[in-house]
Specification:
With 101 residues, the chain is mainly α. The chain has five helices and no strands. The relative contact order is 0.11.
Protein backbone atom coordinates (compact mmCIF):
# COMPACT_ATOMS: atom_id res chain seq x y z
CA UNK A 1 0.00 0.00 0.00
CA UNK A 2 1.62 3.24 -1.16
CA UNK A 3 -0.68 5.74 0.48
CA UNK A 4 -3.30 5.69 3.22
CA UNK A 5 -6.67 6.34 1.51
CA UNK A 6 -8.58 9.49 2.35
CA UNK A 7 -12.13 8.56 3.30
CA UNK A 8 -13.54 12.06 3.27
CA UNK A 9 -11.95 15.34 2.29
CA UNK A 10 -14.73 17.83 3.07
CA UNK A 11 -13.58 20.83 5.05
CA UNK A 12 -15.53 23.36 7.09
CA UNK A 13 -15.90 25.70 4.07
CA UNK A 14 -17.35 22.87 1.98
CA UNK A 15 -19.86 22.05 4.70
CA UNK A 16 -20.88 25.71 5.08
CA UNK A 17 -21.39 25.96 1.31
CA UNK A 18 -23.52 22.81 1.39
CA UNK A 19 -25.63 24.10 4.30
CA UNK A 20 -26.14 27.39 2.46
CA UNK A 21 -27.27 25.59 -0.72
CA UNK A 22 -29.55 23.11 1.08
CA UNK A 23 -31.13 25.65 3.40
CA UNK A 24 -32.90 27.30 0.44
CA UNK A 25 -34.78 24.11 -0.43
CA UNK A 26 -35.62 23.18 3.16
CA UNK A 27 -36.49 26.62 4.52
CA UNK A 28 -37.33 29.03 1.67
CA UNK A 29 -38.26 31.83 4.10
CA UNK A 30 -34.89 31.72 5.89
CA UNK A 31 -31.40 32.38 4.48
CA UNK A 32 -28.14 31.05 5.85
CA UNK A 33 -25.93 34.14 6.06
CA UNK A 34 -22.58 33.85 7.90
CA UNK A 35 -21.96 37.60 7.39
CA UNK A 36 -25.19 38.57 9.21
CA UNK A 37 -25.85 35.55 11.45
CA UNK A 38 -29.03 34.73 13.29
CA UNK A 39 -29.63 31.76 15.61
CA UNK A 40 -30.13 29.35 12.69
CA UNK A 41 -26.90 30.47 11.04
CA UNK A 42 -25.07 30.13 14.36
CA UNK A 43 -26.32 26.55 14.69
CA UNK A 44 -25.28 25.82 11.12
CA UNK A 45 -21.79 27.20 11.78
CA UNK A 46 -21.47 25.12 14.98
CA UNK A 47 -22.63 22.03 13.08
CA UNK A 48 -20.14 22.66 10.24
CA UNK A 49 -17.30 23.06 12.72
CA UNK A 50 -18.18 19.90 14.63
CA UNK A 51 -18.83 17.89 11.46
CA UNK A 52 -15.52 18.97 9.90
CA UNK A 53 -13.70 17.74 13.02
CA UNK A 54 -15.64 14.45 12.92
CA UNK A 55 -14.82 13.93 9.24
CA UNK A 56 -11.15 14.70 9.87
CA UNK A 57 -11.03 12.09 12.63
CA UNK A 58 -12.96 9.61 10.49
CA UNK A 59 -10.39 10.06 7.72
CA UNK A 60 -7.62 9.11 10.15
CA UNK A 61 -9.17 5.68 10.82
CA UNK A 62 -7.27 3.79 8.07
CA UNK A 63 -3.93 5.02 9.44
CA UNK A 64 -4.94 4.26 13.03
CA UNK A 65 -6.07 0.75 12.07
CA UNK A 66 -2.82 0.16 10.19
CA UNK A 67 -0.75 1.31 13.17
CA UNK A 68 -2.85 -0.80 15.54
CA UNK A 69 -2.33 -3.87 13.34
CA UNK A 70 1.40 -3.27 13.12
CA UNK A 71 1.66 -2.75 16.88
CA UNK A 72 -0.25 -5.97 17.53
CA UNK A 73 2.59 -7.90 15.88
CA UNK A 74 5.54 -6.03 17.37
CA UNK A 75 8.02 -7.84 19.56
CA UNK A 76 9.46 -6.55 22.81
CA UNK A 77 12.51 -5.32 20.91
CA UNK A 78 10.26 -3.48 18.43
CA UNK A 79 8.40 -1.89 21.34
CA UNK A 80 11.60 -0.70 23.01
CA UNK A 81 12.93 0.72 19.74
CA UNK A 82 9.64 2.48 18.99
CA UNK A 83 9.46 4.00 22.45
CA UNK A 84 13.05 5.16 22.24
CA UNK A 85 12.45 6.68 18.82
CA UNK A 86 9.36 8.46 20.14
CA UNK A 87 11.57 9.77 22.98
CA UNK A 88 9.25 8.50 25.65
CA UNK A 89 10.52 7.35 29.00
CA UNK A 90 10.68 3.59 29.14
CA UNK A 91 10.17 2.24 32.66
CA UNK A 92 12.77 -0.34 33.70
CA UNK A 93 14.67 -0.18 30.42
CA UNK A 94 17.52 -2.22 31.95
CA UNK A 95 15.09 -4.97 32.91
CA UNK A 96 13.64 -5.06 29.38
CA UNK A 97 17.08 -5.13 27.77
CA UNK A 98 18.27 -7.92 30.12
CA UNK A 99 15.22 -10.00 29.15
CA UNK A 100 16.09 -9.56 25.48
CA UNK A 101 19.63 -10.93 25.93
Amino acid sequence: MDKIPMIHNLGKEDLIRSIKELSVSYTPHWRFDPDNPDIGTALGMIFADMQADTLRRYSELPLNCLLYTLRAHETVLDLVCRLLLEKKKVPNITLIVSVLK
